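Sequence, structure tokens reproduced for reference:
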Amino acid sequence: RHPRMPMAHMSAAMRTWLERLVPNASHASSAIRRKALSKNVDTILGALATKKATPVSLKDLYRYGQDPALRLHHAQFLHREVPIRVSQRVMELRCLPFGLSESHGIKEVIDNYTSYTLDLLTMDPPCEEEELEMFSRYMQYLLQDNTEVVQTMALGVIQARRSIQEKDLPDFRRLVDLVLVRFFTARIGLRFIIEQFIASREYKTGFAGVIESFCNPVLIAQRAAEDASQLCKQHKDVAPKVLFHTPGANFSEDLQFTYVPHHLHYMLTEILKNSMRATVECHDPSNLPPIKVVFVAGNEDTTIKVIDEGGGIRRSEIETIWNFFHSTAEAPIAGTSSGPSSEELGHWMDVLRDRNNRENGGPSIPPSALAGYGVGLPLSRLFARYFGGDITISSMEGFGTDAYLHIPRLGTNCESLPAPVQTSPGEKDSTYVPYPGYV
């Protein structure tokens, strides 16, 4: 029996709605339809944005990822759902105060997201295998094209920040955090359902799409440590060792649980990158203390503790580390020039170099190469909270910092989900859930 999913084909209601906005659009050729849709894009985006995003349970997504025969149903759902979720983000970004909506970076995201919506409305829902293959290629393109959004949004905020008067900075920072928490939480959900569809194309032992049935956090942490170490050596020439400890657990079995491994890898890479950077900057490069990573499987969560001796964080600054672009906001603005400062330009050159490497088939710098923008930890916490987990920081100024990554297991193959997961954005419709510090 197929898991329950939303309407597959373009429903009569959707067809009537589209016809009312753009007469004959649903029956016209792709070129004519695209032209007609483009002329009415504001009305279309506004109408789509008022529709409610459809909740999709992890249980159903797991089963869809497990059975390639269900991909057509999943594709038809995405054809209907993606324009709604993308249009909601466009309308939010269009209405931002402080000139954010007019900054180059934000406008680029708005234009790209608008284009995705028009693309999907121009194409018919896939009904056969050939159409499914074409739709899959487009979803893959959307996913890859969307990878630069974090960097592009960062540049938009930097640009808008320069025009903000000192007295308005607190309100500006609060707004940036609220907007980006909403935006990135929704983006995590959108990318997750698309990644699940793309990955279900081929069977992979132990996986249902991008969800791994027996995810081993120790092995993922080892790979994250290698990536963070490589990055640290690129920027600092050296990197501290990382020691792994699993008290009371069998290294290969007791810690395994159902989860999305690339989410876990991103979070651990970001935490370890910060710990390595702090350790190198606090000690003689020839005598670096190791970073310790401890894994414990509790009844409710699996907790990963990262311990460093990187000098710690002032108690008065603990909460500010969760603010998006905190490091950028605190940096001095270079004169009155509208161009980026040398520090900002250096970070952006890393991004451009990474993009160029990927386009030419070369190696890609990990996402945590965004050091200095102040997005890594806040974004990592959103990834953790998306499935009901969290990241907390405890610091001893003058000595070091302990970072705790709490991960609820996604049940047994996404069934019998624990309470924190049942109420998380990942089990609902990927909408923003307020947390202390973001209210």
Q: What stands out?
A: The two ends are 42 Å apart (CA to CA).
